[in-house]
Amino acid sequence: MDLSVVIPAYNEAERLGPTLERIVSYLTGRGFGYEVLVVDDGSRDATAEVAAAFADRGVRVLVQPGNRGKGAAVRRGMVESRGRRALLTDADLSTPIEAVERLEAALADADVVLGSRAVEGADVQVHQPLYRELMGKTFNLVIRVLGVRGFKDTQCGFKLLDGAAARRLFAKMIVDRFAFDVELVWLARREGLRVVEVGVPWVDSPRSRVHPLFDSARMLLDVLTFRSHHWRRR
Hints:
seven-stranded mixed sheet, 8 helices, 234 residues, alpha/beta, 42% helix, Spore Coat Polysaccharide Biosynthesis Protein SpsA, Chain A, globular
């Protein structure tokens, strides 16, 4: 199994079908072994049924026991992945699947490659609303102060990891919601793994479920919580 693709999904029945068709067609055309893991995070619509329709084309469906959060969904998918490499992508394909080739080139000399909207080579074709861009910049500043330095965009939902490293790191992670990206980078750096950013194309999805105030506060709390947790376990 060369590549595992992990897609967290919550109430994505409308968008998931075209996304899976594009991903599966692209991967089939490349001619290597792959699996696509759709992690249904307690959806109230037909997300699981849409994903299951692709079962004969390399798609597995993992159903969470209720809506536990994006971090929990990604963690389960990564831990249960089997690929030599593991890709995280969002159900809306804000970054097109074809951009994985940019990350693959960087993975030759790294363990974790972060797709980024803020470094050279990035192409943000449709921007977020101004308040969300400011929220993201403020959050990145705060996490640098809290010890995750050297990165301009940890929150882009497009990441490629060495498969063994992905399974090891995610098995240790505890953040269930949006700050899991920061925990991933923090843990990887603490273990001496090489983490790099690569610019990717990106289009904002108007259906983002991130609340600008509530989720920002929750993310900061999660950062403090995982740092305390992992320091105690050293």
